Amino acid sequence: MCRGVVVEMTITEIHPVDITGNGDWQERAVCQRTDPEAFFPEPGEAVRPAKRVCAGCEVRVDCLAYALANDERFGVWGGLTASERRRRYPRVQP
Fold first, then answer.
1. Dihedrals φ, ψ of 80, to 5°?
2. Partner of 22 at 20 to 30 A CA spacing, among 4, 60, 64, 71?
C-alpha cells in the first residue's frame, strides 16, 4: 500500500456542483496529462503510480468528492482505490 497523503473528508464536503457533474476541476487535474490506464489497473497490478500522481494534484479532494457522489466503482479517484473508498466512505442506505 502507498503511504502518501490520505484525504479524509465527510459527506458535507461534497459540493452540489460536484454532484451535478460540473467537471471544471477535471481540466486542472494532473491525471489529464498522464496515461489513463494507470488509474484503472487490472486486478493485481500496482496502484502506486496513480496514487503518486494524485498525491501532487491540486484537485484531489474534488476528484474524490466526484467519485463518492457519483458512486464510481472502478479506478483510482482522489488517491483512493475503489475498495479504499468503500471502506472509508460507506454509502448510507435509506
1. -120, 140
2. 4
- Alpha carbons 72 and 66: distance in angstroms, whole number: 8
> How far is 3 from 52, CA to CA, in rounded Å?
10
Tens-place pLDDT, residues 14-58:
444 444 456 688 999 999 999 999 999 998 999 999 999 999 999
Evaluate if pTM is beyond 0.85. Answer: no
Q: Which of 47, 37, 81, 41 is nearest to 63 (CA)?
A: 81
Instruction: Judge whether 2 and 48 are in contact, CB under 8 Å.
Output: yes
- Whether the per-residue pLDDT at 4 is higher than 50: the answer is no
Domain range list for the chain: 11-88
The grid coordinates of residue 60 equal: 484531489
CA distance 69 to 63: 10
78 φ/ψ sector (left φ>0, alpha ψ -120 to 50, else beta)? left
